[in-house]
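Following up on my earlier message about uridine-5'-diphosphate. Here are the inputs again, as you asked, copied directly from the submission form:
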Amino acid sequence: MKRVLVTGAAGFLGSHLCDRFIAEGYHVIGMDNLITGNIKNLEHLFPLKNFEFHHHDVSKFVHVAGNLDYILHFASPASPIDYLKIPIQTLKVGSLGTHNLLGLALAKNARMLIASTSEVYGDPLVHPQTEEYWGNVNPVGPRGVYDEAKRFQEAITMAYHTYHHLETRIVRIFNTYGPRMRLDDGRVLPAFIGQALRGEDLTAFGDGSQTRSFCYVSDLVDGIYRLLLSDYAQPVNIGNPDEITINDFAQEILKLTGSKSKVIYTPLPTDDPKQRRPDITKAKEILGWSPKVSRSEGLKLTLEYFKKVI
Ligand code: UDP
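Thanks, got it. Here's what our run produced:
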């Protein structure tokens, strides 16, 4: 049985990855310090023999007994309000945490996949974003703690690949949504759905003309799984290129929930990217991957989940 370590296992993406590896017949070791993760996301896996959980902060030395085939590093605060609240931990998990896990991967001769992000492109001047674009990031702005941690993470991962010949994979994740997102994580989708369900006004930041492209979680997990098993070590964008303005997105949520709420406008956060859409040519060509779940389908599934937890 192959053994995989997933860090950030109790988080939104980490928990869905654990599910996928369990379904594929792996022994899964989930690790999380539970700062932003929620153990409830893993509760259903605890009775399984091929799942174990380690409550640990990967910014500190990481020890795992036995062999490991794969390490997937998904530990990190990932929503703007989280990484503004805990900026130093965000920098540490992306830098020190990644270094510890690369060391572990080397010691175990494991393949390491890191969760990078569309935030490495910052407020992009190239649209849609290709992997070749170097980005437009403000290192000392409020988002810099996340963006630069992830950029460092890519650099050190590539250095281990080049100098230590470690097998590495880099996925650049664009906005993703689905069940197990935290209703209070501040991101636009849980914010809007929560507001609509509570009958509150929807808070669009700025004039709402900025765009995002939302990918349903099962599509993302499938792209990551394919990338892990591929032989491609350069970064690959995984996301859904179906781009929408925040204004139009607010209208979709109002329609979906049948809410009578209004949309109100509040100040745009500093350095908020004006547009974002992945170019997924590489994922299509190298991994044979493209998203399958439309936004209307994915939003329905996500709404069902939020109705249960609100
Ligand atoms: N946003 C918004 N209202 C909210 C939360 C976010 O209008 O209550 C906007 C935010 O300014 C950004 C977009 O929605 O332009 C996506 O924000 P999110 O925090 O979900 O993720 P980001 O893509 O910025 O990391």
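One observation from looking it over: Residues 79-80, 175, 186-188, 191, 203-205, 210, 212, 246, 269, 272 surround uridine-5'-diphosphate (CB under 6 Å). Hope that helps, and feel free to reply on this thread.
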